[in-house]
Design brief:
It is a single chain. This protein has 231 residues and is α+β, with helices and mostly antiparallel strands. The chain has a domain at 50-71 and 106-226: Nucleoside Triphosphate Pyrophosphohydrolase (Alpha-Beta Complex), CATH 3.90.79. Helices cover 18% and strands 30% of the residues. It contains 4 helices and 9 strands, in the order E-E-E-E-H-E-E-H-E-E-E-H-H. The two termini are 19 Å apart. Mean pLDDT is 83; it is low at 4-20. Its cofactor is Mg(2+).
Length: 231
């Protein structure tokens, strides 16, 4: 049964705090000027951490394990679509009031378990194992991971690299509830997608999801599904 996209356990109140064009510990905004085919070009870009993502398949229940979470950037894109007047004036004073707030659900996305690469003393595999435990509650070892591939993400703005892994888990490997780290402000819901419904889910545009979900489900159908025991 496909998940419902109508519920998320909080609401957006009537005030957007404002827009801030600043860098942070996770994002560094930059601008480059260079000659490209004899033409002077200017590009804005962001320097962000590389990342890992993990396609998790629970063999006990024949389902994929995803995470669902609120993404402010997705929400703000929907706000601009429905309230374009808020973005016409770049003055923060005119940006603060939202008379008709959209429901939080419009900013919720289904994603693979993922995390940034910000621990230089750990390998990509070790970081991936930590993320699976923190976000989804499964205790996996490095040897449980299979690297699928790596690729560039956000090439127009960030150019960061993401490495995609595959992990098979069982119910016995689940040692916690997951949900991310509350002290870091993470609010993550673990979602299971039955294998039999996975491709229908992947192409259901009413359920917002990342390209990684669609790609990894397709990879699974090509590389793993044909080897599964037939019922």
């Amino acid at each position: 049964m496909l998940p419902q996209f109508l519920y998320f356990p909080f609401a957006i109140r009537d005030r957007i705090l404002g827009k801030m064009n600043v860098s942070s510990d996770l994002i560094r905004l930059s601008c480059s000027i260079c000659a490209y085919n004899g033409t002077k070009k200017t590009w804005d870009f962001m320097k962000i951490h590389d990342s890992v993502s993990i396609l998790i398949f629970n063999t006990s229940r024949q389902c994929f394990v995803l995470v669902k979470q609120f993404r402010p950037a997705v929400y703000m894109c929907e706000v601009e679509k429905h309230h374009p007047q808020l973005f016409q004036n770049r003055d923060n004073e005119s940006f603060s009031r939202l008379e008709d707030p959209l429901p939080a659900a419009v900013g919720v996305t289904y994603e693979l378990c993922s995390g940034i690469v910000d621990k230089p003393d750990l390998s990509l595999e070790e970081i991936a194992c930590e993320e699976v435990l923190e976000e989804c509650g499964y205790d996996v070892a490095v040897t449980d991971l299979r690297k699928i591939t790596s690729y560039r993400s956000g090439v127009g703005v960030t150019g960061s690299s993401q490495t995609l892994f595959y992990a098979e888990v069982t119910d016995q490997m689940r040692t916690g509830e997951g949900g991310g780290q509350a002290e870091e402000g993470e609010l993550i819901e673990v979602v299971e997608i039955p294998l039999e419904d996975s491709m229908k889910f992947a192409y259901n545009e009413t359920l917002q999801k990342t390209m990684g979900v669609i790609f990894s489900f397709t990879w699974f159908q090509d590389n793993i599904a044909p080897k599964l025991p037939k019922n």
